[in-house]
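Continuing the series of single-chain predictions for the mutant panel. This is the parent chain; the variants come on the following pages.
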Amino acid sequence: MLKVSLVVLLSLTVTVVIAQAQELTFELPDNEKQCFHEIIDKGIKSTIEFQVITGGNYDVDMELTGPNGRILYKDTKKQYDSFTWTADQKGEYKFCFSNEFSTFTHKIVYFDLQVGDDDDALGPDFGEHATAMTQMESSAVTIHEALKVVTDYQTHHRLRESKGRAFAEDLNERDMFWSIGETVVILVIGIGQVLVLRSFFTDKRNISVHT
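Parent structure:
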């Protein structure tokens, strides 16, 4: 019985991998556009989520087109967003991120593409078999759901930490330049005051010698 349960657990673990999930963080230079492609079968539900981590006003243009060239999603200067759709035909779906509106600021962009539902990943008969699952199968599904939640939280906190660190480093750099500027201004004013005072005493000395 234990051997059969282990086989069922291994089969569930293998089928979980069927649901495709792709995460990528990439650099988007200024005045450039980058596109990614994914082949999706008809009737498959997919979700794409993106967020700008660093750069400028943390915004980017995003466009999603289907195999027939029809635009499924398009928005401009978004900091973050998510979009869910069901493929009406099998083919290559293209989603592009554009930073063409920026003249000198490059961006760091993160996106997560999930193709298929978890129920599909657990097998085509999972919905019918759910009422008669064994304790081992129920535990495997529960662990899978818990791990998915943990992964989502970790990704969320990593993005927040990365964005906060980039903001802190940028603020520290601005403070450093501001401090250097204040120091230079103070030195220039101090030297100018010394020179002005010396010129006063020098003029008086010259007047006394002539008299």
